[in-house]
Design brief:
The complex is a heterotrimer of chains A (291), B (300) and C (372). Chain A has 13 helices and no strands. With 291 residues, chain A is mostly helical. Chain A has 2 domains: 16-52; 78-289, Orthogonal Bundle (MetI-like fold). In chain A, helix 7 (151-175) packs across helix 9 (192-221), helix 8 (180-187) packs across helix 9 (192-221) and helix 9 (192-221) runs antiparallel to helix 12. By secondary structure, chain C is of the alpha+beta class. Helix content of chain C is 27%, strand content 33%. In chain C, strand 16 (324-332) and strand 17 form a beta hairpin. Chain C is elongated. The chains are: A mainly alpha (291), B mainly alpha (300), C alpha+beta (372). Chains A and B meet through helix 1, helix 2, helix 4, helix 5 and helix 6 of A and helix 2, helix 4, helix 5, helix 6 and helix 7 of B.
Chain lengths: 291, 300, 372
């Protein structure tokens, strides 16, 4: 234990000294540029949040703090039913995508047959397909089958789109888990199913939670797919906002937007932190940044 | 132990019929539901788009399958061609801008982020999971004629005001803002993987940080840049929200045309043809991309 | 053994069960496509012995172990475990447990949870599980770390947990797949001793896979040397070391001076023309090609006994190893022998040789091992 601590400390000092040296070693341009980048990245978000508390109706003059736009949002029955619809879509899509995506990831990690690899490739295609294509395709599929567009069709489309995300995250975690672990479980008296239930799933649970939160955030915010596959009433929140901002500019949208931002920031932050809480180094953050 | 004895022992043992101890159908069964789902809801729906692009709109305005090339012929006029070219120009510009913005940012975080590296990456990722629509909306209010930016310009003396919205610049800026993270992350990943000893060695060899950068760092991160190009170009070419909220009819892209066919003109076959054209453009791009990465793999 | 056999001759059958090996492999074969990894292997492993499968990587030793455990299907052949054909039995129904090379601990469970895993699957009651787990943790010297998570443990501790997790089930046979490979040298030596002690204490049959000859020699009751999917030789450590039966066995365990030549009239004539007396082997046919092996420590460079075979040579290199010094001695063009001398207190300075010295080598005829 002590040796590990010393090693960690040594590593930290080493990296600090290296950092100091390299910052002195010129690229002020890159550092300053990055600072500017982060400012621009957050300016619109900060503005939305700030003006959601504006007491005036203006979007350019701040007249002091007020919660009137939140009151308006929470009293708008249309927006409220859209919010409920979006929460429902995101919850169901999260469960569905987790179920199917985890199955896919497990099968792809364990089966190396040609058809399995083909399925693996196909399951990645949604990740590189522009959403508008997926949206058009889903729309035609549903109308072609004579299905009435509704929240159900939105949910199906969102699941299709999210399976790939779950599969990628879960596969990343599975690939860092030795296949011997499942063999050990079978060695100790588990059938294949029991090994999956008592060992594999508990081991990858942090990754599953992270993937679930991420999918919830993605689906809750998603506009394009929802736009193409939703029925008339109730509409998901993002679709509702879209039609509102095309008609008028209302500060109430800032309040709605702030709430949506809060939800997704919270979920994404949690999905980044949770695997670390379980002592895993490979959180979804590493998976995202690792390409 | 003689062979005869072995055979004798083997014969007396139960379970002479050979069975597999390890074969389990578990994984195969697990593959079935997601595979079925993807085939039904994704693969077949894409095929329907392709099929309907050869279809027609019948007398009562309903789409019908067919074998007509009329939709593709209809796309061969200057109005549509202008939009195609405009979409390409916007997307390519977006990719190039993302590259010039993304590289220094990825570089600074990867090589000079120190212990804040992970925090910085999280700070980068989180806004991109926030609603794209809300972020575009935020820019549209900021850049509007009475928006904060124009107000700021007014206070520093530009009393005329600048029209940002409805310009190509605003649409491209929206696209860059929307997708730049997809450029930064793969470049960051490839910089992280790069051995920093390479840079040290390069400094000894080339004596100039700038020459080292172009001779060592840039080639070592080519794969990351290529990945970023793909991840930015694909969604940029298919986008319609930026042009819708920050632009206008004069800046519309393919995505806007597709959206119009489905929600305004109600010409689904023509919309499908447009979607197929978009997919083909992306497919051609993918082929070039895969060629480039394969060459990259051969070289390294 | 079938039921009919039991009915016909119960007494003989009972005797047979007593003699029954813990594991009997009959014509065990594993092919991956066209590649034969294990080739018609026949092997008996006795009850209660510490048995090592020793060989270079890719020799089929791990595949053999995996077939015994049930993780890999035999292409051909039979695996008999305690008298029962288990060839087609699923791993969870075989009364064997495995210690994996990667330890394969369950990350989501603490040490106690890991060790008690197998017992919980068997449905034992809680107090019994607790008792046996504690007893086992006591045995592997981990009593204080019952509630630690695997990631908080050192390599050696993980190793002990893996061992305890397998042993607590009291399997008929414990399979160990290079369990010490990931440990550093010092810890490895300590674990070798501990493992051997634990085996003696619990009396369970251990089948130990390793590529490390020292490990196999120091720990095993018997060793099987595997190469290319075949067993080259099996026997006690002394057997396989002192009396290697194949060139591979002679070369793989320790270093050996191998020489091949034509035999006639108790003399071996090498290709280089060197003649080496080879007394005491009347069984060899005249004019046959014969290989002989002599261990470096069996060759003397001074204080010869009468009756030793003696040949002259020139020292070409010396390597000082502390307790021993290794000499490379040329005895003929292209024939270089390795000699290992103990650096005993009695060795005087003038006993030492340096490069270029002309020396005489001698060995006792009984220390020459004749290989086919």
């Amino acid at each position: 234990m002590a040796a590990t601590t010393i090693a960690t400390e040594a590593k930290t000092t080493h990296s600090t000294s290296r950092r100091r040296r390299s910052v002195e070693g010129k690229p002020f341009f890159a550092v300053a540029f990055t600072a500017l980048f982060f400012v621009l990245l957050y300016v619109p978000i900060v503005v939305v949040i700030l003006f959601s508390f504006n007491s005036k109706k203006s979007l350019s003059v701040f007249g002091g703090f007020s919660n009137r736009w939140y009151v308006q949002f929470f009293n708008d029955e249309g927006l409220q039913s859209s919010l409920r619809a979006s929460l429902m879509i995101a919850s169901i899509a999260m469960v569905g995508a987790l179920l199917l995506g985890t199955m896919l990831a497990l099968a792809l990690e364990r089966v190396s047959s040609r058809p399995a690899r083909a399925v693996g490739t196909v399951s990645l295609v949604p990740l590189v397909t522009p959403e508008i294509v997926t949206g058009v395709a889903a729309l035609l599929f549903f109308t072609g089958l004579g299905l009435k567009l509704s929240l159900v069709t939105v949910i199906i489309a969102e699941i299709t789109f999210s399976i790939s995300y779950v599969a990628v995250i879960v596969r990343g975690r599975l690939s860092s888990m030795s296949g011997e672990v499942e063999e050990a479980a079978r060695d100790l008296g588990c059938t294949s199913w029991q090994a999956l239930r008592f060992v594999t799933l508990p081991t990858i649970m942090p990754a599953l939670i992270a993937a679930g939160l991420l999918v919830f955030a993605l689906v809750f915010d998603d506009f394009v797919l929802a736009f193409f596959t939703t029925g008339v009433d109730p509409q998901p929140l993002s679709v509702r906002i879209y039609s509102e901002i095309r008609l008028t500019i209302s500060p109430a949208i800032n309040a709605v937007g702030t709430c949506m931002l809060a939800v997704s920031v919270l979920l994404v932050a949690l999905s980044l932190v949770i695997p670390r809480l379980f002592g895993r180094k490979d959180s979804s953050l590493d998976l995202i940044s690792g390409g | 132990m003689s062979t005869d004895l072995q055979d004798a022992v083997a014969a007396t043992l139960p379970g002479a019929k050979r069975q597999s101890a390890t074969r389990t159908r578990l994984w195969g069964w697990l593959l079935l539901p997601p595979a079925a789902w993807m085939i039904v809801f994704f693969v077949s729906s894409i095929l329907i788009v392709v099929a309907l692009s050869f279809g027609t709109v019948n007398a009562n305005g309903r789409p019908a399958f067919g074998t007509s090339l009329a939709n593709y012929q209809a796309l061969m006029n200057t109005t549509y061609l202008t939009v195609f070219i405009r979409s390409l120009v916007y997307s390519v510009t977006t990719v190039v801008l993302c590259m010039f913005i993304g590289y220094p940012v990825a570089y600074a975080i990867a090589l000079h982020g120190g212990k804040y590296k992970n925090a910085l990456i999280a700070a980068l990722v989180i806004p991109f999971f926030a609603s794209y629509l809300i972020r575009m909306y935020a820019w549209s209010t900021l850049l509007s004629d009475e928006g904060l930016v124009n107000q700021a310009l007014h206070t520093v003396g530009f009393t005329d005001g600048v029209q940002f919205l409805n310009t190509p610049g605003a649409v491209v800026a929206g696209l860059v803002y929307g997708f730049v993270v997809f450029m930064i992350l793969p470049i960051y990943a490839s910089l992280e993987r790069m051995d920093t000893a390479l840079i040290e060695a390069g400094k000894d060899l080339y004596h100039s940080p700038l020459r080292t950068f172009f001779a060592v760092t840039v080639p070592a991160t080519r794969a990351g840049v290529l990945g970023g190009v793909l991840l930015v170009f694909l969604p940029a070419l298919g986008d319609f929200v930026s042009a819708q909220l920050l632009g206008g009819p004069s800046t519309f892209m393919i995505g806007n045309l597709i959206q119009q066919q489905f929600f305004e003109s109600q010409n689904q076959p023509l919309g499908s043809a447009l979607t197929v054209v978009l997919m083909l453009a992306l497919l051609v791009f993918m082929v070039f991309y895969l060629r480039a990465t394969q060459r990259q793999n051969r070289e390294t | 053994m079938t039921d009919t056999a039991r009915q016909e001759n119960p007494v003989a059958d009972a005797a047979a069960i007593d003699d029954q090996p813990a594991i009997r492999l009959i014509n065990l074969t594993k092919k991956f496509g066209e590649v034969t990894v294990v080739d018609h292997l026949n092997l008996d492993i006795r009850r209660g012995e510490f048995f090592s499968l020793l060989g270079p990587s890719g020799c089929g030793k791990t595949t053999t172990l995996r077939m015994i455990a049930g993780f890999s299907d035999a292409t051909e052949g039979t695996i008999v475990l305690g008298g029962e054909d288990v060839t087609s039995v699923q791993p969870h129904k075989r009364n064997v447990n495995t210690v994996f090379q990667s330890y394969a601990l369950f990350e989501h469970l603490d040490v106690e949870g890991n060790v008690g895993f197998g017992l919980r699957r068997k449905g034992l009651d809680k107090s019994e599980i607790k008792r046996r787990v504690n007893e086992m943790l006591e045995l592997v010297d981990l009593a204080g770390r019952a509630s630690a998570k695997p990631r908080e443990l050192s390599g050696g501790q993980k190793q002990r947990v893996a061992l305890a997790r397998a042993l607590v089930n009291r399997p008929e046979v414990l399979l160990l797949d290079e369990p010490l490979a990931a440990l550093d040298l010092k810890l490895r030596h300590r674990m070798q001793v501990e493992l051997k002690e634990i085996q003696r204490e619990v009396g369970i049959t251990f089948v130990f896979v390793t590529h490390d000859q020292d490990e196999a020699l120091t720990m095993s009751d018997r060793i099987a040397i595997m190469n290319n999917g075949l067993i080259e030789q099996s026997g006690t450590p002394e057997d396989v070391y002192e009396r290697p039966r194949t060139k591979f066995a002679a070369g793989f365990i320790g270093t050996s001076n191998l020489m091949t030549g034509m035999h006639s009239e108790a003399v071996l004539t090498l290709e280089s023309g060197l003649s080496i007396p080879l007394p005491g082997h009347p069984e060899l046919t005249q004019g046959a090609a014969v290989s002989i092996a002599i261990r470096p420590e069996k060759i003397w460079m001074a204080e010869f006994d009468p009756g030793m075979v003696r040949i002259p040579g020139t020292v070409s290199a010396t390597v000082y190893h502390g307790a021993t010094t290794q000499y490379l001695v040329d005895v003929a063009p292209g024939v270089r022998l390795t000699v290992l001398e103990q650096n005993l207190a009695r060795s005087r300075h003038d006993d030492r040789w340096t490069d270029g010295d002309t020396v005489e080598l001698g060995w006792k005829p009984e220390h020459v091992v004749v290989i086919g």
